[in-house]
Design a protein that fits this description.
Layout: E1 11-14, H1 19-31, E2 35-39, E3 47-48, E4 51-54, H2 57-64, E5 68-71, H3 75-87, E6 92-95, H4 102-114, E7 118-120, E8 126-129, E9 133-136, E10 145-152, H5 155-167, E11 172-177, H6 188-196, E12 203-209, H7 214-224, E13 231-236, H8 260-269, E14 273-274, H9 281-290
Parallel strand pairs: 1-2, 1-5, 2-4, 5-6, 6-7, 10-11, 10-12, 12-13, 13-14
Antiparallel strand pairs: 3-4, 8-9, 8-11
Helix pairs in contact: 3-4, 5-9, 6-7, 7-8
Amino acid sequence: MSVLVNKNSKIIVQGFTGSEGSFHAQQMIEYGTNVVGGVTPGKGGSTHLERPVFNTVRDAVTSTGADVSIIFVPPAFAADAIMEAAEAGIKVIITITEGIPVKDMIPVKEFVKKKGITLIGPNCPGVITPGEAKVGIMPGFVFKSGKVGIVSKSGTLTYEAADQIVKAGYGISTAIGIGGDPIIGTSTKQAVELLMNDPDTDAIVMIGEIGGSYEPEAARWIRENGNRKPVIGFIAGQTAPKGRRMGHAGAIIGGADDTAEAKMRIMSECGLHVVQSPALIGDTVAKVLGA
């Protein structure tokens, strides 16, 4: 069992023939991901990486039955690419592109919500179900199959957590990098909810960062729903000064509840196993699941 992507997913790549799309599509194919084609306007009818290229997402869906898309389109055109995929009937849209203008993302988020589509990102590392499908830019070799789900705003901390969990003797069910831009399609709570409802996920690692209210909202939802599975939490940016943006565009302390300290306190109050350092994630997972 998994969430969002698995061995049966049919994946297309938007921005397929560009340098980023080509590199990561090749990595995905080598991992064993079922990439059925790609989209580059004007290059329809050709082949790339031994896969068909289409002019539009609709053409790709009609021809291949694709249900997942990963987007490597420049920021100025990425919002249109997301809406094109949604309009064509893609069910899961994973947007790697960083820096899509906020004014573009506001209508996009509403558009995909109305259509009942899952948008992951933008500015995310993607989603991986180890051994089945890698739809993103993460190093696949780090991830081994298991029963610990990961939800993270940070790409590198996703890989770090996965590595620790595997070295602790466990594995990953699905890892979801939700993205670090100010407006993203899937919140921490929504991603946690997917893993809570996955029968093959026994525990969840939730990695957040300063700024916004995603992590407290997720923590309160976990408590309200009876803490059905253990959740190990970490917040990055514990030393970040107020008003200074840290890494991701959305990681900026705007109020008292945006700090790492406040978020970690709320998470602890809600029954999460909060760690002070990312170096403790693997050990804490082992302690929680071994108890």
